[in-house]
Structure formats: C-alpha cells, structure tokens
Amino acid sequence: MSARARRLLGPLLLAALGAAPAAGARAEGAWVARVQSPHGEALVRAEDLARYAAARPGRPLGALLDELVDVELLALKARAEGLSARPDAAHARDRAAAWRYLKESFEPPLSAARLPARYVEQATRQNLRLFRHPELREASHVLLTALSPPSADGRPARPRVTPADVALLTPLAARVAEDLRARPVASDEELLARRDLYAAWLPSGYEVRVERLGRFSREGPYVRPFADACFALREPGALTPPFATEFGVHVARVSAVVPALHTPDEALEREVRARLVDEVRALELQRALDAERQRADVWVAP
C-alpha cells in the first residue's frame, strides 16, 4: 500500500473502528480497503480489521491493514491458480476457522478476570501455602546416633540416645563441623556423599544418618532444639554448631532461607487467576469437545 493510500485511509480506519461496535446492522459488511488485482477483487472489512487489531494491541493500524491486504492478495493469486480448490487448502481454511473460534468465541469468556469462581476457590485452597506462610528454612543434617534395633515391621526404629552417647558423639560431631567448614559443600547431594567418610570416624554401635529435610517452619514437624538451631541461621549454606536432641548429635546445613509471606486477598486472587487461566481453558475446551463428540458421528479410517 502506498504512503498516500495510508494517509487517506487513516481517518477512515479510525472512523470505521470507532463505529463498528455500536453501528448495528448498518455497519455489517462495512469495508476499509478494496483489493483489486489481475486475479480478482476482495474486501478488507472493518470488523475483520477490528478483530485483527484487538489481538495485536499497540501496533499501528496502517501496518495491520497492510498485512490483511497482503493476505487478500495472496488469496486472490491462490484462487487464480486453482489452489483454493485443493483439499489441503480447504483443510487450512478449516483449521483457521477453528483457531478463530477459539480466539474470538471460546477464550474471551474465560479470561483471568472471568474464570468461574469454583476454579479460583479450589486453586486458592490447594495453593494457599505458596502465597501465605511463616518464615521457612530448607535444611539437611548429619546425625550421629546410636544404632537402633529394627522395629517390629522390620524398618529402622527412631534412634534414642543417652547422656553418655551424647558425651561420646559431641566431639565427633565437632570434627564433622570442622570438616564441613574446611571443605564446604555446595549442595545437599555433596553433603549426602560425605556419609561414608563420617561413618568411618564412629566407634562400633553408632551410625551416621545424612538426611535432606526439605522446607519447614519453626513450628513445623521437627523438635524444638533442631528448629531453633536452623532458624538461628540467616544465610543459605550456613552450618549450625553441633547440638544434641533426643535422637543424637546434629550438624545441620541450611540450604535456603525463605522470608514470611502474607499476600493480601486481592493480590492473591489476581495471582491465582493469572496462573490458572491456561489450565481452565484447556479443561473447559476438553469438556466442550467431549460434548461435541456426543452430538457428532465420527468415523476413523482403519
């Protein structure tokens, strides 16, 4: 399209787009560009340009109109060469129509702001801890403890230690801490790899357990001395000094420090809706397709 044509079409485009939503039946079929070529004639209609522009916010109308004119020119040429009658062209038109239905009819009612409340409420309940939680820690630990006989079901019993065990194990736990300070580990996996080394330092009747404990709060599942030792650390990668619990003597490594989070109601709902929209559209589309299949006959070639 020439620069002069763009200048002339500018006011027409704005007028057509502005009138399209409220013009009713009189605007039906209004066009903003007529395309003539040796192969035939086609129109770019105001409603087509309006939809095209709505899907591409911020782009100049003149550039969008150029693209639609190019499409019509190519379509005219394809028709003139008999390509529009080919099955693959018909298939392409069908796919384009299906895509247009999804973008213009199916998806708009399922925008983030208009999702059915039942989806938002369920997702909020299931994911509330992502948006509201107390201060958290992620940690692993080296536990030096007494060997425990198997429990009745054959699994290792929870260890229990005596004051004499603690007195024996505390210097060995200090040696573990010294080794970890001299040769810091960069991950929980590296800490797990030290188990056999530390086990070799223990006398008979004792064992080393190296465990990844995941994310927890101060009031979470672990005994208070363990939680207090971990929450005293403020930096990822930091080590506790050796400390005793009813299970043995520990050296813990904090791998993550997660600040407390309390997302306000309005922001929480907005975030849930934004994260949920694609999943809900996929679910509702599958339901819609299932319903269409119930009303249709489908034959599949053997």
The main β sheet shows up as: 4 strands, antiparallel
- Average pLDDT for all residues: 83
Figure out the total of helices.
Answer: 10
Q: Return the structural class.
A: alpha+beta
Approximately what portion of the residues adopt beta-strand conformation?
Answer: 15-25%
Order of helices and strands: HEEHHHHEEHHHEHEEEH
Poorly predicted segments: 1-28
The count of strands amounts to: 8
List the domain count as a whole number: 3
The order of strands across the largest sheet is: 5-4-7-6
Helix proportion: 40-55%
**Cα-based radius of gyration, to the nearest Å:** 34 Å
Named at the architecture level, the CATH assignment of the largest domain is: Roll
Terminal CA distance reads 50 Å
**CATH topology name of the largest domain:** Chitinase A, domain 3
CATH class of the largest domain: Alpha Beta
Which term fits the overall shape? Answer: elongated
Fold and architecture overview:
There is one protein chain. By secondary structure, the protein is of the alpha+beta class. It has three domains: 3-84, no CATH class; 113-130 and 262-294, no CATH class; 135-259, Chitinase A, domain 3 (Roll). It is built from ten helices and eight strands. The strands form three sheets. It has a four-stranded antiparallel sheet with strand order 5-4-7-6, sandwiched between helices. Strands 1-2 form a two-stranded antiparallel ribbon. Helix 5 (117-131) crosses helix 10 (265-295). 15% of the residues are buried. The model is unreliable at 1-28 (pLDDT under 50).
